Amino acid sequence: MVIILNVILFYSIAILRYICRTYNVADHWYPKDSVKQAHVDEYLEWQHTNTRGDCALYCLHKVFWPLIVGKPINEQRVAQLEKRMMITLDLIDNVWLKNKTFLSGNEISISDIVGICEIEQTRMAGFDPYANRPNLSKWKMRTASYLNPYYEEANEIVEIYVAKYNKKYGKPNSKI
């Protein structure tokens, strides 16, 4: 939850759009131009049931749910979720990033912030989302570079969990 000038918002996409519309941020984050804004919105709407849904559910079932309930991983469910997630990551690599520098065009936007956060969390479950996905891998490097030093600061906890996972289970062994 975020409270800004008595406006209470609970969801990240709404918060990001509100900040971009209300404060003087660079136009590329959420363009005022209707066509460019529509491209940002298109990814933001798509990602709810794709990038966010698939990556978050995969991590939830592979890492967090077993920790919370103290039961073993449901390998069949994780395999189903991984298959869906791989389709989504392939779509991002081959469709969303085809002939584009960033998810919504050739300038970074809030869609890239949202996308990279969702994709990076899969690394905490020992998955390498960038393996054999050249467009996705290059996009990750561009996005992280643009957002640094804040990207590294925000990802410190992810890196801690990735290191713990790798120590316990070994390096990611993607099935791609």
TrEMBL record:
It catalyses: RX + glutathione = an S-substituted glutathione + a halide anion + H(+). Residues 33-176 form the GST C-terminal domain. It comes from Schizaphis graminum (Green bug aphid). Belongs to the GST superfamily. Theta family. Homodimer. CDD domains: GST_C_Theta. Its EC number is 2.5.1.18. Keywords: Cytoplasm, Transferase. One of its GO terms (biological process) is glutathione metabolic process. It comes from the Eukaryota. Gene3D superfamilies: 1.20.1050.10. This is glutathione transferase.
